[in-house]
């Protein structure tokens, strides 16, 4: 479905959450009333086809592993239970990318990537919560992927 949505002129990004789809338009001048019918038709046609939306694979770095030390396990647990559900309510997501020298590396996805308050969310919300529960966390850093890599990596 992602590839089909990207074929619609004016679609900048597509993100699938657990129970939502976030579509971002290329610029503010584009009228949602012009984009919405094509987006809606593409989504409805796809679901009518019966094909799976995504595979059940866990993204790299998401699942806990036996190699995770106690601090990394606590970071992932806090992300999954407290932080991600809140961010997902706003049409985005947070992906764990690593922990080194006291810095947690996170990738923001969905509506969070284009939201003007994403840095505030990252620093004031996520960083403060991680530091409150996990003293080893000294800061949070946003990881930016190349947009074309993101499109390909998330295509079903």
UniProtKB/TrEMBL annotation:
Gene Ontology molecular function: any one: iron-sulfur cluster binding
Residue stretches making up the Scaffold protein Nfu/NifU N-terminal domain: 1-50
GO cellular component terms given for this protein: mitochondrion
Any single biological process term in GO: iron-sulfur cluster assembly
InterPro entries according to UniProt: FSCA_dom_sf, Nfu/NifU_N, Nfu/NifU_N_sf, NFU1-like, NIF_FeS_clus_asmbl_NifU_C
Similarity section: Belongs to the NifU family.
Name the record gives this protein: NFU1 iron-sulfur cluster scaffold homolog, mitochondrial
